[in-house]
């Protein structure tokens, strides 16, 4: 999860709505993806949710700061269904 990145993309919508203290630069937003793609410590790790270079806690209810990841987002059966649906939509 890169977070709320301040870029030109917001010009296509209503602009960035995230409070300034929660906004990130493109470099800050890319940090987690770069870590996950390059760190040998995470080799072979998949099916998890990371934010700010850390694995997110499981949230069973919405928190005030919207932190954490819902259990259904980590469900491998859900992932398989999404993959299959995506292939069907692409005509594969």
- Looking at how many chains there are and whether they match, the oligomeric state comes to single chain
Strand percent estimate: 5-15%
Mean pLDDT: 86
Number of strands: 4
C-alpha Rg, in Å?
Answer: 16 Å
Based on secondary structure, the structural category is alpha+beta
Sheet with the most strands, sense and barrel status: 2 strands, parallel
Helix fraction, binned, reads: 25-40%
Domain count? 2
Shape verdict: globular
Distance between the termini: 28 Å
**Number of discrete helical segments:** 2
Low-confidence stretches: none
Order of helices and strands: EEHEEH
Task: Write out the strand line-up for the largest beta sheet, numbering strands in chain order.
Answer: 1-2
What would you note in describing this structure?
This protein has helices at 26-38, 76-89; strands at residues 4-5, 23-24, 50-51, 54-55. It is of the alpha+beta class and 92 residues long. The protein has 2 domains: 1-56, no CATH class; 58-92, no CATH class. It has a two-stranded parallel ribbon. The protein has a two-stranded antiparallel sheet with strand order 3-4. The longest helix is centred in the C-terminal third of the chain and has 14 residues, at 76-89. The protein is globular, with a radius of gyration of 16 Å.
Blueprint of the fold:
Blueprint: E1 4-5, E2 23-24, H1 26-38, E3 50-51, E4 54-55, H2 76-89
Parallel strand pairs: 1-2
Antiparallel strand pairs: 3-4
Properties at a glance:
92 residues, alpha+beta, 2 domains, two-stranded antiparallel ribbon, 2 helices, globular
